[in-house]
Amino acid sequence: MARFHSRGFIFAILFFTFISLTGNHFLVQASKSYDSDGADFSITDFDSDFNLFHQDYSPPAPPPPPPHPPSVSCTDDLDGVGDLDTTCQIVSDLNLTRDVYISGKGNFYILPGVRFHCEIPGCSITVNITGNFSLGVNSSIVTGAFELASHNASFLNGSVVNTTGLAGKPPPETSGTPQGIGGAGGGHGGRGAYCSLDDTKLPEDVWGGDAYSWSFLQKPCSYGSRGGTTSKEAEYGGLGGGRVNMEIVESVVVEGSILADGGDGGNKGGGGSGGSIYIEAYKM
Questions:
Q1: Whole-angstrom Cα distance, residue 156 to residue 126?
Q2: Contact 17, 10 (CB under 8 A)
Q3: Residue 106: inside a domain, yes or no?
Q4: What residues make up the domain containing 111?
Q5: What is the pLDDT of residues 222-271, one digit of tens each?
Q6: pTM above 0.70, yes or no
Q7: How many other C-beta atoms can be found within 10 angstroms of the C-beta atom of residue 140?
Q8: Which helix (H) or strand (E) holds 42?
Q9: How far apart are CA 254 and CA 276, in angstroms?
Q10: Nearest Cα to Cα of residue 143 among 120, 169, 168
Q11: Half-sphere exposure (Cβ direction) of 215: Cα atoms closer than 13 Å
Q12: Predicted pLDDT at 273
């Protein structure tokens, strides 16, 4: 028969256990134990090891958003009058070819009849000012994404902020049948329209774009998705609508139009889905 030597092994000897039951509460008095050499130890000595496997887990914080690029200049980059720390006025048409970030402590005014455009899908115009913003009578902003932060904002009669059919990259799986040529409609609040010219396809083989994520409902910030095409050689689907985001400290007045519609698909493609418009202000 094999024999085990006590040296190196710990034998727990139950010294005293007292359990008191009072109402719904249990009180357990810790046992006292001895090792083979007579030295006492407590089962609470194992707490540190036990906690290694029973700690609360908190996922790592998401990475911070990328920093804004340097602000453009009112005069040098935008051909305006004044400066962004007092008042910058855009007095003539401007056709942008890249994203612009406009930031300052003053006001930003686009005067009546002026076209302030960046007609490139996904192009972004961001205005982040401490003062007031105004889009004048019959003036227009056309871009893929327009973001505004200001104290007050006015969109006067006949003015328009238009992101129709100028979306950047939409959420995944929102443009209909993967790699298909059925011309399905883009996803939106519900699934996009089913469409197929192939009689051999089953309904479950062809579908419209997926509905957009519920996580964006409280603060929508997604581009619309492109409609499907009917050709392998060309994309005939309409582009999705762009994004408009405004966070105004005091009041916003809208006498014009703010648009984020999807682009038309025509006879050979599905229509794009609308983008997102989010406006937050103390008074509208």
A1: 19
A2: no
A3: yes
A4: 81-167+240-264+274-280
A5: 888 877 766 666 777 788 899 999 999 999 999 999 999 998 877 777 77
A6: no
A7: 20
A8: strand 40-42
A9: 17
A10: 120
A11: 3
A12: 82
